[in-house]
Write a structure and sequence with these properties.
Low-confidence stretches: none
Strand content: 5-15%
Distance between the termini: 17 Å
Protein name: Transglutaminase family protein
InterPro entries: Papain-like_cys_pep_sf (IPR038765), Transglutaminase-like (IPR002931)
CATH architecture: Roll
Organism: Streptomyces fildesensis
Oligomer: single chain
Mean pLDDT: 96
Structural class: alpha+beta
Shape: globular
């Protein structure tokens, strides 16, 4: 899908802040380790994606009550929901100069109830003119997200008949509604009550 940047130009999609803290020593160390095995930006981006997808369990899948939101904390504690894992992947990619933004879907349960906002990232690799969405939430039975800049393979496809949607905005920083829910939550069950149901 065509993504619309909320900030023009690439600079904001390389920036560090309190959430995407890619200057943190743990983020830098992790990026350096991943870069050592990569032959170029594409290989590095895929390795970073697979690292976050596969070695940081989604806290809902793992039944982990801890809530993380800062990229370095996600990497240190090895837990987070989709939003937190997206922050970690964004930090690892920006640490190596790859423009990366945050994007979102509105999803529901199987019956079309309990809507929630699901977090993704989008990358702009050298030589590419289009942002490519990636979903690092973590695979499980029925979920097979893979890294690709050619053919999108996210965890879920939206079902418009249930009010699900792909949001077209590419954010340089997490929207306040998402970030505030992560920061205010005392544990994951509390977080489920706070997360926005739409953007």
């Amino acid at each position: 899908m065509e993504l619309l940047q909320d900030v023009p130009g690439p600079a904001a999609y390389l920036a560090a802040d309190d959430v995407i803290d890619h200057g943190h020593p743990l983020v830098r160390e992790t990026a350096e380790r991943l870069r050592a095995g990569a032959t170029g930006p594409y290989d590095y981006a895929r390795a970073a994606f697979e690292f976050v997808r596969d070695t940081v369990p989604h806290s809902g899948d793992a039944d982990d009550p801890r809530v993380t939101w800062r990229a370095s904390d996600v990497l240190r504690l090895r837990t987070g929901i989709c939003h937190a894992k997206s922050h970690a992947l964004t930090a690892l990619l920006r640490a190596e100069g790859i423009p990366t933004g945050l994007c979102y879907q509105r999803l529901t349960d199987e019956a079309g109830g309990n809507p929630l906002v699901h977090g993704l990232v989008a990358v702009l690799l050298p030589g590419r003119t289009r942002w490519a969405r990636q979903d690092p939430r973590g695979n499980k039975p029925g979920v097979d997200a893979q890294f690709s800049v050619e053919r999108e393979q996210l965890a879920w496809r939206v079902r418009p008949e249930f009010g699900e949607a792909d949001y077209p905005v590419l954010y340089a920083a997490p929207p306040p509604a998402v970030l505030e829910s992560l920061q205010r939550a005392t544990d994951r069950p509390h977080l489920w009550q706070l997360l926005p149901t739409a953007l």
